[in-house]
Design brief:
heterodimer, A: about 300 residues, mainly alpha, ABC transporter involved in vitamin B12 uptake, BtuC, globular, B: about 350 residues, about 70% helix, about 5% strand
Chain lengths: ~300, ~350
Amino acid sequence: MTLVEAVILTVITAATPLLIAAIGELVVERSGVLNLGVEGMMAVGAACAFAGAVTLDSTFGGFVAGAAAGMALSLVFALAVLGVAANQVASGLALTILGLGLAGVIGAPFVGARRDPIMQLQVPGLTDIPLIGRALFGQDPIVYLSFALVLAVFWFLFRTRRGLTLRAIGEDHASAHALGLPVIRMRLLAILFGGACAGLAGAYLSLVYTRFWSPGMTGGRGWIALALVVFAAWRPGRALAGAYLFGLASVLQLHAQAGAIRLPSQLLSALPYLVTIVALVILAARDRRATGAPASLGIPFVPDR
Amino acid sequence: MRVELVRRASPPALARALAPIAALAVALGLGAIFIWLLGRSPAAAFDVYIRSQLTDGWALTELAVKATPLVLIAIGLSFCFRASLWNIGAEGQLIVGAVVASWLALSGLGSSPWLLPAILVLGAIGGAAYALIPAILRVRFGVSEILTSLMLVYVAELLLDYLVRGPWRDPRGFNFPQTRLFTDAAMLPTFGDGGRLHLGVFLALVAVAVAWLVMSRTLFGYRLRVTGDAPRAARFAGFRPTATTLTVFAISGAMAGLAGIVEVTGQIHQLKPSISPGYGFTAIIVAFLGRLHPVGILAAGLVLALTFIGGEAAQIALKLPFDVTRAFQGLLLFCVLAADALVTYRVRVVSTAGKLA
């Protein structure tokens, strides 16, 4: 395996959880809800997935457990912001704090355990093509699922009637409600979808990326996924590009750390966060007005009958 | 059947005051269920987490010491949150304030009586400067302050880690990642026996009093309340949002930085890779539980400080991981936000059976 091939493969592994979490949050924000709790849902997803996989001795079961856990946690958030119109930013922070705590409690008994590598696609002939064979035809099912998710979300948002409804609700919930569109129900479904995606992304971290569980293993990836949604201007295709660019940057940082570059390791570790800030600034400076944010994003909705 | 929210014309003042207490009661109930689900006795947990902490002199001192950074930071955050600005990076501002001020403390500059005040002021300046980064990015480029302030927490943690493992490491510290101990002149004076109660506790009380004066007795405080409650009215009145944004971020950063250097000069007396168990994040809960009011924040700071010392005691006595405490803190914030919303809105159950016919 050449170095280039190794880099491509690690970029895919680094980008996949970011992509899945970002695509879920993208749908949530398109419906006009800002859920800042991605980090917490990811952490719980990672812990429950690992606990589930070890207990059931099934990686598939682990992924299901992770997605279900993320979804369950997002339901708590939905109860607060949809049920009683609580402040969305603060509720998202509460979800993060709650999620990180719960993840620690759930994961603690499984510290030290390891999982076997996940099954990967094997197509005779195609997988053995040099350089791109394994990248295209030798990945695990979740990588293909993440691409399918991008396509499905794009199709749903821009090619279906329900997608149009969801976007209309995100742009102007008062008008949408006046037209008789089900604002609360669509937002609830969007939040649950976002929770399942965040949980799945966390599951990928503990079951594929590291194959063990450790406290704080999400390491801010949930926040980076949130930034990716802004970076992507709320478009699924751009989220895909953003996640892979970001994956590339973080892998190059790892190689720089291992290689000859004489910089403090902490500076290299800080790069993903600094790069994210710079990316947000460049994006905002380029087109100050048309960033593509849904107009009702983050505003509590209370129907006046 | 469907549930509707109806905005109350004027929320009863009593409900407003009691909402945080009701939220705390609900959170404690849910916490008891959580403890029971973990297979422990809620009664024993209550004893360890709360009763034994409030009946022990040593623990009460510890309560005041732990509440100090929480109250200092939350007082600062209340200025931001009142203006509907989301500085969630207080943890990073705490670290940078402590780092900047420790530079002076470690510089070996004599024992002038001005050294300690200078260190504290430098801590506040460091925190304020760090908080101004997301504030400037917001007013200049329109970047959301939420994500940038949070990202800078990770950067600050790595900066501290670099300094204590690299250039600032104590050469005679047996390779431990920590700086030299501060000199006596760079430590906060302590009171009482045990020497745990330090001057920072009184600084927190002063901060509460000053914040109360500013909020209720100055034009700035009034402007802030209007900006938060009625942004449109504030614009018509000619209040400049740019100046307000920069000011409240500077205030909250300064308070967080002060909290950081108070922790270091009052308790730790040196820099280590970790100087805060997440005070900057917990302070967000303190600010909301205290209803963004200085006196409320003082009370809320004591409540959250109790979760910290109770959580530490439960780790030892009940072998319950500290993450149980974190989960409880998140749960508490949910309950507080829901209670706030329930004061603002009335929940009405509407029967739709008639309409369908």
